[in-house]
Amino acid sequence: MADDHDLFRSGLRTLLEEHGVHVVGEAATGDAAVHAVRELAPDVVVMDLNMPVLDGVQATREIVATSPLTRVVVLTVSDEDADVMDAILAGACGYLLKDAAIDQLVAGIHAAAVGESLVSPHIAAKVLQRLRASRADTDAAEVIRAELSEREIEVLKLVASGLENAEIAARLHISPKTVKNHLSNIFMKLQFENRIQAAVYAVRSGIV
């Protein structure tokens, strides 16, 4: 857990451990979080954005670059568009507000641990609404059409519509494992860390 408020970390640690989440370490600054990840190799980091020395976005970017097996879930008070976009593009695979229920945070941690994503519905709606209101990025659309197969584009569109793997599988009449394979290919071809980045790119391109 990375948060600069000791009381918040202490309370959150107690709640998470009561819900079966094993907390291996804590950090009060962004740079301390980066060092802790290198030393402890956790599955998931719960990351605040507003921290001293190194903020949460910069820390997330460094963790994703140096410890790619560790997933980052942002837990913050900010629902500002810029903060959400910066965190997602830095590689966060979840974005939740601090007023979220503990069950929702635990679900986000478990989702991140297996490579899925969880974003507060309010946050996701804001981001996608903002992106859809902006002018489509024709270069992104061309890259998608040049790099991805027709089936991969179908999968990407459904990811950007907010569907999870099982729902995509049912919609396309394929297995969840096949969906996961398509996603792995999409991430590799377009150099994404997670499905949120892919969804943002797809919506920005105008293909959704």
How would you describe this protein?
This protein is of the alpha/beta class and 208 residues long. The chain folds into 2 domains: 124 residues, 3-Layer(aba) Sandwich (Rossmann fold), CATH 3.40.50.2300; 71 residues, Winged helix-like DNA-binding domain superfamily/Winged helix DNA-binding domain (Arc Repressor Mutant, subunit A, Orthogonal Bundle), CATH 1.10.10.10. It is built from 11 helices and 4 strands; from the N terminus they run ααβαβαβαβαααααα. Strands 1-2-3-4 form a 4-stranded parallel β-sheet. The longest helix has 15 residues. The model has no long low-confidence stretch (mean pLDDT 87).
- Please mark out the parts with pLDDT under 50 across 5 or more consecutive residues, or reply none: none
* Strand order, largest beta sheet: 1-2-3-4
| Proportion of residues in β-strands | 5-15%
Structural class by SSE content: alpha/beta
**Series of secondary-structure elements, N-terminal to C-terminal:** HHEHEHEHEHHHHHH
Number of domains: 2
Provide a count of the helices.
11
The Rg value, from CA coordinates, equals: 17 Å
CATH first level of the largest domain: which class?
Alpha Beta
Task: Let me know the largest β-sheet.
Answer: 4 strands, parallel
Helix content: 55-70%
User: What gap, in angstroms, lies between the N and C termini?
Assistant: 35 Å
Please supply descriptive tags for the structure shown above:
11 helices, alpha/beta, Rossmann fold, globular, Arc Repressor Mutant, subunit A, 2 domains, four-stranded parallel sheet
